[in-house]
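Q: Here's a chain of 137 amino acids. Please give me its 3D structure as tokens.
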Amino acid sequence: MDAFETVTASKGEPVPDQLRNLFNHPDDVKVQKLPCALPNEGSMAVHFAAGARTVPHTHHNGQHLVIVDGVGVVADDQGVHVVRAGDVVSSPPGGWHWHGAAPGSAMTHVTVEHPGDFDLSVERRDWDSTYGLDLNN
């Protein structure tokens, strides 16, 4: 049988201890495990308060993000990109990236990925800066 759940920030839980080092401000992030019937994959909604984001990381098997609310930022080797509800981002296996809420807006995304498949031992580069972001486009 198919499983269903509605994504809402009120259903989110605090970031579990094993994931806290993935975020710059883990107390400003809530996670909501979602049903996922895809073999070897998992899905969750991640609710970011304004300015909260992940630290740079990679996924050995890639990661798929669907922005469902707010305004966010996603950075990859090509730069920092503004994302909004309805946008979809697919990071290839091993692709360096980080993502989260824009400085002035909360953001929620749904992720589909291989659970626990992230590597934080990557270059930080300029991830702590949003210099030059144009949130109006």
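Q: Can you summarize the key feature?
A: Strands lie at 13-14, 29-34, 42-48, 63-76, 79-84, 88-91, 98-101, 107-113.
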